[in-house]
Amino acid sequence: MRAGEIRRLADRAGIGPRVSVLDVCCGVGGPGRFITAARGCQYLGVDYSPSAVEIARELAGALPCRFERAHVPPLPDGRFDVVLLLETMLAFPDKSALAHEVARVLEPGGRFACTVEEGRPLSAAERAGMPDADTVWLIEPAELTALLHEAGLDVIAREECSASHSATAAALLQAFRDDRAQISRQIGTVAATALITAHELWSEWLRRGRVRKFALVAEKR
Questions:
Q1: Taking the model in full, what pTM does it have?
Q2: Those residues with Cβ within 8 angstroms of residue 71's Cβ, 6 or more apart along the chain or in another chain
Q3: Beta carbons of 101 and 74 less than 8 angstroms apart
Q4: Taking the CB of residue 187, how many other CB atoms lie within 10 A of it?
Q5: Contact status, residue 154 vs residue 148, Cβ threshold 8 Å
Q6: Mapping DSSP to helix (H, G, I), strand (E, B) and coil, where does residue 118 land?
Q7: Residue 84 contacts residue 22 (beta carbons within 8 Å)
Q8: pLDDT tens digit string along 68-99?
Q9: Nearest CA to 140 among 91, 207, 210, 205?
Q10: Contact 45, 26 (CB under 8 A)
Q11: What are the structural domains of the chain?
């Protein structure tokens, strides 16, 4: 996500001083550190990767961010004003279970702010061509809205960001192609090929509208 997109999503979610934020699948915590520094919120980031959590803690420095290792779902116990899920909704095959967990930890009137790749599920041929296809679970807009509603979450804001993400995917693809030899030396030829193949597919799908990218905010009833 670009900084402006993170900032707009934080605005719509009402993130500000003393607002408690749970950032699910936070990775190395880039958006979380950015939001905490700008908004003064009470931030907890969780991720399954111990190395990502360690890096996030190191990079946070003196910022009042907390990072913990957790396998999601379930979400950590507690009550939060905002739950963030950025760039990882795609990896959850059971989005209904995730939505119910989000609703469980949100305060009444709390907001769930996320990004999501929308589109019909991958065909057998598309799944065969996509590296790590077991982490690619698209969802159609009506289904997502319905499962969020069923969990007690009503969508209150929605912004399409397909164009900017298409441009980013294309730029990354070109950079990976240009640096393929160096990348292969670092992670191996097989992994480098998979990286490029995946970005070729995402670039194509976003360009022709096979997949659309959205940022949305849902409020707990």
A1: 0.95
A2: 48
A3: yes
A4: 12
A5: yes
A6: strand
A7: yes
A8: 999 999 999 999 999 999 999 999 999 999 99
A9: 210
A10: yes
A11: 3-163+209-220 (3.40.50.150), 166-203 (no CATH)
